[in-house]
Amino acid sequence: MLGLNYKLRELEKLGSNIRVGLIGCGQMGRGMISQIESMKGMRVVATADLYPEVIQQAYLRAGIPASSILLTNELEQAEKAIEQGKVVGTTSTDLVVSLPNVDVVVDATGIPNIGAEIAWKTILNKKHIVMLNVEADVTVGPLLKRMADASGVVYTGSAGDEPGAIMELYDFADAIGFEIVALGKGKNNTLNYAANPTSAAEEAKAKGASPKMIASFQDGTKTMVEMNAVANATGFLPDVAGMHGPSATVHELPELFQLKEHGGILNNKKVVDFVNGVAPGVFAIVSSDKPEVHHEMNYLKMGSGPNYVLYRPYHLTSLETPLSVARAYFHNAATIAPWKGLQAETVAVAKVDLEPGFRLDGIGGYTVYGRLLSQADASRAKALPIGLVDSNVVMKRPVKKGEIITFDDIEQEQESTIWKLRSLQQQSMAEAPAAVKSIVHV
After folding, report:
1. Which residues belong to any copy of the SAF domain (predicted)?
2. Which of 127, 228, 289, 328, CA to CA, is 20 to 30 A from 204?
């Protein structure tokens, strides 16, 4: 089978390309546009964002002349422009997902409710969807994947994002028969549960990033969500609530991720975790019950065993997303998806004392942070998934700082799309697969 690079070159030789629709032209989206302009056989033909001038600048910086950029919300104009070899910028997400000359849609919004709605509509329009929105994926991804399967399209997370990079290590180790003990990622800053957009503002400004995004890194929510996606893909679970999160070097990982009776930190095998000190890398801890395999690993200078670390020292985020686009288009395959269903849950924890009437503000805000639990533990606690937290959620009971927020503690002023999809997901989990096919045609 030809590699993706050869397939892309062949596609371009035929005078064609994979036509990508992008929604969200922030840092990730802008990088992806430029990267794809350097590739063969692929182009971002349409981009949606709240700010058309941002889209225009992204295309210009990618080397596309102003005369080849059309800003419009009209479907017919957009279709004609793309047929003429131009690219389109729009404020309408519906335009991008419904364009006949878009093959694959990429969600780079980072907002759970918006991402869920984009994925839903993309699947209804019979297009592949690549999610750079792990927050939406861990909340309603199992439903969206089942919908995509029923529609004959691909629902996938992104290569280059840490869950996708971890999945590549998992697939490699699993294919050659290793026992996989743990899967994890590095974290490049100490957990600060109190981090908020104000405290993160200086770092955000220096990095040219959103203060809420930086706060979600600092308070650990992003790490919890990313490992949640790995759990739902593999069935691996957090060993303890919130994971262990030790500090270590790469060389210390094999010894660290052993069972407690063997001197390690683990209560169980097949766990997800994170480590301070190995960022921006991802890792898999592997072992074997075969003496000859241990002999070979020792000969290859992989360590003395019984555990070994497979480590990838980088992940290129949205610059690698085109690989997932191509994999979906050519092979009808996902990079990472919730194949195991809802195995874990990132639940909302109070950042401050919350009183009745307090309005929650979502991921990276002032009121909540995420903690990863097994789905069974989250269900028993009636814990509120952090992907369901938005400005429509209001406290009706007091919750102390550091406590998990439950469904009983809150009320909704208005039901958002992601809440509706979550309800459908719960319903479909209890019903036959045929129920999902009926949802697709709603």
Report:
1. 345-411
2. 228
